[in-house]
Amino acid sequence: MITSEEIKRRLWDGANELRGSMDASRYKDYMLGLMFYKFLSDKTLETFKITAGVGQLSEKELVDEYAKAKTEYGDNLNKMIQGVLGYYVSPEYLYQTWIKDINSGSFEVQKVTDSLNSFERTIAVSGDSSDFIGLFSSSTLDLTDTALGSNLHERSKNIKALILLFADLNMVALQKGDILGDAYEYLIGQFAMESGKKAGEFYTPHQVSEVMAQIVAKSSEIKSIYDPTVGSGSLLLTVKKHLGKNVQRDLSYYGQEKNTATYNLTRMNLLLHGVRPEKMTIKNGDTLSNDWPEDPQNPNEGVQFDGVVMNPPYSAKNWNKAGLKVSDPRFEVAGTLPPDSKGDFAFLLHGLYHLGTNGTMAIVLPHGVLFRGSSEGEIRKRLLDKNYIDTIIGLPNNLFTNTGIPVVIIILKKNRKIDAPVLIIDASNSFIKIGKQNVLQEKDIAKIVDVYIEKAEITGYSHLATREEIKKNEYNMNIPRYVESIDTEISQDVDAHLLGGIPQKNIDDLSILQALVPDVLNSYLQTIRPGYVNLTKSVDELTSEILNDVRINNMSDEIRTKTKDYIEKYWNILRNVDNSTDITNLMGEMLESIKNILSDYKYIDVYNGYQVIAEIWKDALTHDTELIANEGFYKMGRTREPNMITKGSGKNKREEQDGWVGSIIPNDLIAQELYHAELEAIENKKDSIREIETELTELVEAAKDEDSKEYNALYDVLKKNKDDEIGNAFDNKLLKTELKKAQKDTEEYHLLKKVETLISNKSSLIKAVRIEEKELKDAVGERILVLTDAEVDMLMYKKWFGSTVEKMVGLVHIPLKAELNSLQMIQERYADTLSEIDMEIDRLMSEFEALKDELVVK
């Protein structure tokens, strides 16, 4: 069975190979559009199979049966399928028919165009089937576009290659586990990153979506969700993911998108994620120019939603092309219109207007909305006075593909208590860098959401701003006014520089050491004058004593025991997952559980532990549990698959099998655990090769030295380039020639013979390593099939949790080592007093003067 990760990798690799020089933002329309048409074809065949009761048939047989039934029953069959799906794909226009034509050599691009046009005519006239209308408009999928190829032959070749990319994927089967939807969403994200600034219109980075979606999902009872700038629909789908199955089933999705191609992408994305047509209402239109959706029962009132999420275009210029007035009900609450040059607050006010009384809204906007003046300042004041702004979250810069500016998430609510403060979170320093982008890690997202839910104040990270504070700052909400960054720089002490010693204040600031091991720390200190101390031993000795202190060891042992119990609990659950297991909930439970365990320890950062478990899921469990749920733990442990590698280039590029790999157990792990002797023998030979290479390198360098004995014997057998310049290796051919000429028992002969022997031994060892590695690889490939249950247990335990206990125990040492490193730095800072430095300068100057006097000018 193919997993979602494998599908993602294969499709993205295929996209990169097939699109050539076409811009990613354009190619995505073709790739994702044809992928969706394959889904529609597969759904049609599945519906025919079920309604016609034709039993178990191969795909080819099913297509043939469908064609026969179409000939026999005509419109009645069409209407039957249309009644179930809201559309149908005729047999002659099936994706499978395109593949058949490709294989028979009769494929024509026009057939694809005809199929897409035909689909429009097969959609039911009434009901919710309008969700399928216009999906394949020529503005989205123009198969005559020369970007696909400069002539019909080239276009045909490229389109055929793209069609074949999805040929073996059963889209219906993949949709059931949300694998298809995940792959589609992944491709959208990858195309967004490739497209750079062009991507801003349709994609919100996953980690930003996660923060917004988790906050909205956890802080309101969600029955309806709305995104007025819906893009690809990723925000709506991320909210869905964080809701229970029962809530998901009844959830109503609303969205509006101005760009037609992106609007089509949204509908495809939602349908592929299993959103039923009757539960989604997506409109192609300009959100600001014409308010939508309106309540049919109350024409002058907008529909209100439990959740509103949006990532609008930043600081949109000339947003008010429709000439809207402040009397527009969306803007009445603000008392003024946002400036024409910046539409940020226009989008915010539109979303707020459609937010239900008990709902939650999350919007991403540029940082400037927090402090810009004029009409934006008036709007911000009005929103704060009306108590609508609940939370402001400052994010790192360079998170988005379309802008490097820092952005903020603003959370709005309409049912806040009158005296409720505004929570301000500064998460701008919480990220890692991947390539050119800054990225929030799982622990960063979890911390933001936890602080939001708990309304927690953390020095240097979050603050609850009262109405009085906000007024005092004249409604300027710039984050640094409320959350002061922690100054990690330790200030300089003039007395310590002049007279030496470590300031006692710096010792007192080592709060964790003072709390956990004050007696050990103080036993290493000697007061040299009031307020200043010296260390009586080195920091290294202090570090060793502290890390081995019984209190630290007891804490480490506690965490070790609790982590082992935690792993044992989930080890048994993970081995027994099946299709009834909610994998997403299981992951959430494991992450929450490790936080609860570590929260008992005041000085441990629970989010570092959270990240350890999050990475186990990302690196292994997400992939493995998907397979285990379908096939079983031990069966998958003994399952292997071909190891496909790419050979050649250009027209000769091809895929070939190179042995076997375990489906869930890595070959390297099997080799390490079950083939110690073989690995050791190979490694010993590699060590010998490295020793020979070192010896040969030394001989080469000696041969270049005219004063050495090696020069006379070996210089002439060094390799030379075409310009007759000496290289860094010996020439075998020249070596053999010189050996034949050299007189035996001479020093020259022995040196030449030594080089020959070393080269020969190296060659033999390389050959032996190659043979033994091949034998080991083959042995491991076969061993996968006969692994015992105990071996599967041992290997999978090591794969999933091999280093987890030590990583959790290591969390105890992190804050201690950080303070001990600070102590080392402080000690070094004040190690030399000013007078000692002056004395050293005087000594060096004296030596310089003495040396100068010795100099004789000729």
Quick structural gist:
With 858 residues, the protein is of the alpha/beta class. The protein contains 34 helices and 20 strands.
Fraction of helical residues: 40-55%
Strand order of the largest sheet: 3-2-1-6-7-9-8-10-13
Number of alpha- plus pi-helical segments? 34
Q: Extract low-pLDDT stretches.
A: 197-202
Structural shape = globular
Domain N6 adenine-specific DNA methyltransferase N-terminal: 7-163
GO biological process, one term: methylation
Keywords: Coiled coil, Methyltransferase, Restriction system, S-adenosyl-L-methionine, Transferase
GO molecular function: DNA binding; N-methyltransferase activity; site-specific DNA-methyltransferase (adenine-specific) activity
3D structure, described in words:
- It holds the Pfam family N6_Mtase.
- It is an enzyme of class 2 (transferase).
- Belongs to the N(4)/N(6)-methyltransferase family.
- Keywords: Coiled coil, Methyltransferase, Restriction system, S-adenosyl-L-methionine, Transferase.
- InterPro entries: D12N6_MeTrfase_N, DNA_Adenine_Mtase, DNA_methylase_A-5, DNA_methylase_N6_adenine_CS, Restrct_endonuc_T1M, SAM-dependent_MTases_sf, T1MK-like_N_sf.
- There is one protein chain.
- The chain has about 850 residues and is α/β, with parallel strands linked by helices.
- Among the domains are: about 1-200, Ferritin; about 200-485, Vaccinia Virus protein VP39 (Rossmann fold, 3-Layer(aba) Sandwich), CATH 3.40.50.150; about 675-785, no CATH class.
- It contains 34 helices and 20 strands.
- The strands form six sheets. Strands 3-2-1-6-7-9-8-10-13 form a nine-stranded mixed sheet, with helices on both faces.
- A hairpin with a 2-residue loop joins strand 15 and strand 16.
- Helix 2 (about 25-50) packs across helix 4, helix 2 runs antiparallel to helix 9 (about 180-195) and helix 10 packs across helix 11 (about 235-240).
- The radius of gyration is 35 Å and the shape is globular.
- It starts with a helix and ends with a helix.
- Residues about 195-200 have low confidence and may be disordered.
